Amino acid sequence: MQFRALKGMNDLLPGETERWQRLEAAFRRTMELHGYGEVRTPVLEPLELFVRSTGETSEIVEKQMFELERGGERLALRPEGTPGAARAFIGANQHAREPVTRWYYIGPMFRAEQPQRGRYRQFHQAGCELYGDAGPIVDAEMIGMLVEFLSGLGLEKLDVAVNSLGGPTTRTRYREALLAYLEPRSSQLSEHAQRRLRDNPLRILDSKDPRDRAVVADAPSILDVLEGDDRAHFEGLCRALEALGIPYRVDPGLVRGLDYYTRTLFEIQSTQGELGSQNTLVGGGRYDGMLKSLGGPDLPAIGFALGIERLLLALGDTQVPRPRRCFIAPVGERAMLEGLTLARDLRRSGVIVELDARGGSLKSLLRRASNLGSTICLVLGDAELDRGVVQVKELERHTQADVPRDQVVEHVRAALENGAER
Ligand code: HAM
């Protein structure tokens, strides 16, 4: 019987993982530049954590969680990183150590969605959370950091959408205004939206169903009811984005699918590369009430997460150049041990080496060296051993030379370095 990876879950093999590593390294550099430290939290958490934070009426908690039970406790594979980070922040009493905390994370998340290009059941997010600053300057700084990061990777066509959900008072007022508009039109809404009317009418604003879209087109805008501090916060955000010269679009229909958001919301989409309909690269926002609702301090927070798979799709098939490497082809019994020690010596001086000790013919070994994309192939046979030399073949330059054994390491290193400059 042959096993396959589960639906919507992918193996990443060498060749592809190099692109991931490059991306992750760039993300880490950006985060460190902005004073963020890495947090690593468990993949498995109490199910109740997500119910209480991500939200009972969110699509994620309603139908996308991978749940399991162990020792009478209900657990879930994390569908997103924000609740686990908040739990860790509270558990570590982090706010007592410093007034503002900046954390970032990179890791797998799990949602039982219908897989398609850019949408998987195990996917990876790179994200961050900032605790203890009520904004709006840090809100704009975070969006600016993302735009710099994404454009630095070569993405040009970025669409930055922002909105504000206000605080709890604005939300309640808006909910009422929205219900007053939607209820008389409920028969024109999809069945799903009709159910949402009762538990979470705001989510109808981002429904993809054409019937709902037609109804909400003329719905009152949340921005019309933003008042006082909420309005000042949103205007402050827009001013700061303008100061940074970031092109953005105010989208009053942007509500996002998680229940914890307050005030600032943002999403970044790209129309570049191989992304299809799943073209939202980044989603984020402020969640000033979550820490308190999870039993922690009453502190504001904001964060985002970007989908690594989607970002790689947007970046297209640009191949990361492979580091130059050396292949050792020992022919015959005696040459095997010499090959083994030579490989060790080369690696000690930082050369990437593949030793093929399967004992094939020289012809098959050379074919393998070339298939691996090796820059140099070192041939060792009885004749070379008797003369105390190694045959060095530079495969790209089509040259070969016999080099004394005690000079091979230096010779190969120099040849690889010269080649790198070419
Ligand atoms: P989210 O919008 O649910 O937000 O996800 C953020 C990003 O993760 C999406 O924009 C997308 O790129 C990627 N993503 C989500 N689901 C999938 C999937 N099934 N397959 C592939 N990629 C996916 C959050 O998760 C929040 N925790 C963001 C946040 C942090 N808000 C505040 N702090």
Describe the structure concisely:
With 422 residues, the protein is an alpha+beta fold. It has helices at 17-33, 47-52, 59-63, 82-91, 137-152, 168-182, 191-199, 210-216, 222-225, 228-243, 290-293, 308-315, 333-348, 362-371, 382-387, 408-421; strands at residues 37-38, 44-46, 67-70, 73-77, 101-110, 122-131, 158-164, 249-250, 262-270, 280-286, 301-307, 325-330, 352-355, 376-380, 389-394, 399-404.
Note down, in words, how this protein is organized.
The protein is of the alpha+beta class. It contains 16 helices and 16 strands. An eight-stranded mixed beta sheet has the order 1-5-6-11-10-9-7-8. Strands 13-12-14-15-16 form a five-stranded mixed beta sheet, with helices on both faces. A hairpin with a 4-residue loop joins strand 15 (389-394) and strand 16 (399-404). Helix 5 runs parallel beside helix 10. The longest helix has 17 residues, at 17-33. The chain is elongated. The protein binds histidyl-adenosine monophosphate (HAM). Residues 80-82, 111, 113, 118-120, 123, 125, 127, 129, 280-285, 287, 303-307, 309-310 line the site of histidyl-adenosine monophosphate.
